[in-house]
Design goal:
InterPro entries: 3-OHacyl-CoA_DH_NAD-bd (IPR006176), 3HC_DH_C (IPR006108), 6-PGluconate_DH-like_C_sf (IPR008927), ClpP/crotonase-like_dom_sf (IPR029045), Enoyl-CoA_hydra/iso (IPR001753), FA_oxidation_alpha_subunit (IPR050136), NAD(P)-bd_dom_sf (IPR036291)
CATH topology of the largest domain: 2-enoyl-CoA Hydratase, Chain A, domain 1
Number of domains: 3
GO biological process, one term: fatty acid beta-oxidation
CATH architecture of the largest domain: Alpha-Beta Complex
Pfam families: 3HCDH, 3HCDH_N, ECH_1
Structural class: alpha/beta
Strand order of the largest sheet: 12-11-10-13-14-15-16-17
Distance between the termini: 30 Å
CATH superfamily of the largest domain: 2-enoyl-CoA Hydratase, Chain A, domain 1
Strand content: 5-15%
CATH class of the largest domain: Alpha Beta
Radius of gyration: 28 Å
Shape: globular
Keywords: Fatty acid metabolism, Lipid degradation, Lipid metabolism, Lyase, Multifunctional enzyme, NAD, Oxidoreductase
Number of helices: 30
Catalytic activity: a (3S)-3-hydroxyacyl-CoA + NAD(+) = a 3-oxoacyl-CoA + NADH + H(+)
Length: 706
């Protein structure tokens, strides 16, 4: 049975939930007498907010369109273009999550290869006109064509599969390295997905050699057709280097080192992708595509992929409809923002508010020098944005004009939203809000960027405690997308709705959190960091303790995170949590010693444990274990603590559901998608049931159905 017949049989009798991307064919007479082009437009019938994707029905529709085209004798070329603003973004991920057997998974890879490769084997030249976002299978469609043009306005081109726990499975690992060389290809296949799923833009794709020509958006298709005609007439010729003659081994080895550093073997997908790229140098097209089918099948049936799809769904859907958020109609307009403080965090906030809300932002601080430094930081960052082409000269001048400083809080009199970013001390923050309340209107929202203190206590002595809300950003503010919005005991719906509206305008993913010590991310990180540090305090070798969680593939080790946060901040949060929950959160004496001697962390500038720090930790008398499995013991100790803490947080109503815990860890702590956050990992390793008596998620939600 052929691939097409196999899929027709598989689909028979199924209720198709797939949003089918149709292949709409029309004839275009090319200029200069170059002949007739059969132009295929990919269109799922929705606007750009629902991009073109490919499930089995969509692939069969494209195959049928190609059948009709190849039956003709009057076609000089075939072109492929997307609907407005969208080329195609690859496989239907919802359908991928429903694949129930390895045989079906192999068939999905084979179907994509069968259909897409026809574009390069039509007998007439094929052209991809990349007019909009092209990701995953969308980019692979273009790679199968003989020629490619790209619009300079395309905002996103990527092969993001490794980010989710897959590999580019419809030709990407075989065609891209041959086209642009393995080093450039691995940036798209490996490096960018593992760097917070970074995308490239149209001009980048042209510079890399993915596209043969680039045109402006206004007349992109017209100019692309003109260029295609010139190619057909021989007036434009392209010379592409033979990258198979190069030595690929050093590039592959370098990429493997990068993957080891980032994931430490935790996720199989990037390693499979590396093997496939290495294969592309010598494999025939049939061999390479068959290897992609096998890799795709293995990964589609893995827990890591299901956890990745679960994480993707959280970020794409749940983050856009925050659980428990009040009616957005209650939100008040924000026409001016005040920022108390002019330090680094406050300055980052000022820049973010000015860029996203495009309203005046005024900073205050205790003296002119601090104020000048804070405003100067914002202006310097705006200059950098302009130098990178992110903002125009006019936009840069406007942004600089929006951000000003004042030594008095009287400047907040007409502000609708004031956020404090001062020292993490309850008394200091209470004093700040009392001073602000004297000058602002009764409806002005007072927001705190506290990372662990009680929002309720902060508002307790105010005349209007109902307008105080937690607005906890994560550092760096411009990069990490999470915003924990904390409802105090008195916070009213109008304040909360305004906070969510502002968070959305800032392009942050907002999660509603109950006012509880350290909220979500910092509470969980402090708990697991405390367990790792306690193991080191008890005598476990520092390197063993620090690498105990490598199997999760976290963005950094616990002690590297400590170095980033700073021992003083970590100690302060640990003390806060110990005061709230003394039975579960300890305070490390060695961490206190680290702060006392002014060390920035455990590691020295050579990325080795500082000998003086090692001496501080020596003398522990009760190691976690003396067996060779010390790493496993520390890992299980930390994970069991996380399972316990998550169950308690859910019981306390800190968030609405486990999904919100996972969303926070993905977006606020940078945990990789292949873990699904934290609860899927705890479920599939059996730790959830061991510690709490039950799973956090139903079987099959973020794992292979049982």
């Amino acid at each position: 049975m052929s691939t097409i017949e196999t899929w027709k049989a598989l689909l028979e009798g199924r209720n198709a939930d797939e949003v089918v991307t149709k292949a709409l064919v029309r004839d275009v007479e090319l200029p200069y007498g170059a002949g007739t082009m059969a132009l295929v437009t990919l269109d799922n019938g929705h606007d750009h907010t629902k991009p073109n994707t490919f499930g089995p029905h969509g692939l069969l529709a494209l195959d049928a369109a190609l059948d009709a085209i190849t039956a003709r004798t009057d076609v000089a070329a075939v072109g492929v273009v997307g609907k407005p603003f969208i080329f195609a973004v690859g496989a239907d991920l919802k359908g991928a999550a429903e694949v129930s057997s390895r045989e079906e998974a192999v068939a999905i890879g084979a179907l994509g290869h069968h259909v897409f490769r026809r574009l390069g084997e039509l007998g007439v030249p094929s052209f991809a006109f990349v007019n909009g976002a092209a990701m995953g299978g969308g980019l692979e469609i273009a790679l199968h064509c003989a020629y490619r043009t790209v619009s300079s306005g395309v905002p996103a081109i990527a092969l993001p599969e490794c980010f989710l726990g897959l590999v580019p499975g419809w030709g990407g690992t075989q065609l891209l390295p041959r086209l642009i060389g393995p080093e450039k290809a691995l940036k798209l296949i490996i490096e960018n997905p593992l760097s917070q799923n970074r995308m490239i833009k149209g001009p980048d794709a042209y510079a890399l050699g993915i596209a043969d020509a680039m045109f402006e958006p206004a007349d992109f298709l017209e100019e692309s057709l003109r260029w295609a005609a010139q190619v057909l007439r021989g007036e434009v010729t392209l010379e592409r280097p033979d990258h198979t003659a190069d030595d690929w081994a050093p590039v592959i080895d370098q990429a493997r080192t990068l993957v080891d550093l980032k994931l430490r073997g935790a996720s199989p997908a990037p390693y499979r992708a590396l093997d496939l790229v290495a294969l592309a140098r010598t494999a025939s097209r049939d061999e390479g595509f068959a290897a992609e089918d096998e890799a795709l099948a293995d990964l589609l049936m893995s827990d890591e992929l299901r956890a990745g799809l679960y994480a993707f769904d959280l970020v794409q859907r749940r983050a856009k409809r925050p659980a428990g958020a009040p009616d957005k109609a209650l939100a008040r307009p924000v026409t001016k923002v005040g920022v108390v403080g002019a330090g680094l965090m406050a300055s980052q906030l000022a820049l973010l508010f000015a860029r996203r809300l495009e309203v005046p932002v005024v900073l205050t601080d205790l003296d002119q020098a601090r104020l000048d430094k804070g405003v100067g930081y914002v202006h310097g960052e705006v200059d950098r944005l302009q130098a990178k082409g992110r903002v125009s000269a006019d936009q840069a001048n406007r942004l600089k004009g929006l951000v000003t400083g004042s030594l008095t809080k009287d400047a907040f009199a007409d502000a609708d939203f004031v956020i404090e970013a001062v020292f993490e001390d309850l008394a200091v923050k209470q004093k700040v809000f009392a001073e602000v309340e004297e000058v602002v209107s009764e409806t002005c929202v007072l927001a705190t960027n506290t990372s662990s203190l009680s929002v309720t206590a902060m508002a307790a002595n105010l005349r209007h405690p109902e307008r105080v809300v937690g607005f906890h950003f994560f550092n760096p503010v411009a990069v990490l997308p999470l915003l924990e919005i904390v409802r105090g005991a008195a916070t009213d719906d109008a304040t909360l709705a305004t906070a969510f509206a502002v968070g959305k305008a800032l392009k942050k993913s907002c999660v509603l959190v109950k006012d509880a010590p350290a909220f979500v991310v910092n509470r969980l990180l402090t708990r697991f960091m405390g367990e790792v540090t306690a193991a080191a305090d008890e005598g476990t070798p520092l390197e063993v303790a620090d690498h105990a969680l490598d199997s999760l593939g976290l963005p950094m080790t616990p002690f590297a995170l400590l170095q980033l946060v700073g021992p003083a901040v970590a100690l302060h949060v640990a003390e806060t949590m110990h005061a709230a929950f003394p039975d579960r959160f300890g305070v490390s004496e060695n961490l206190a010693k680290l702060v006392a001697v002014g060390k920035p962390g455990l590691y020295g500038p050579d990325f080795q444990i500082d000998p003086e720090v090692r001496a501080l930790f020596e003398g522990g008398t009760s190691p976690s274990t003396t067996s060779p499995s010390t790493t496993d013991d520390v890992r299980l100790r930390a994970l069991r603590a996380l399972a316990q803490e998550i169950r308690l947080m859910l019981d306390e109503g800190v968030v609405a559901a486990p999904q919100d815990i996972d969303l926070c860890m993905l977006l606020g702590a940078g945990w990789p998608f292949h873990t699904g956050g934290i609860t899927p990992y705890l479920d599939r390793t059996g730790i959830s049931e061991e510690v709490t008596g039950s799973r956090f998620l139903e079987p099959g939600v973020a794992s292979v159905p049982e």
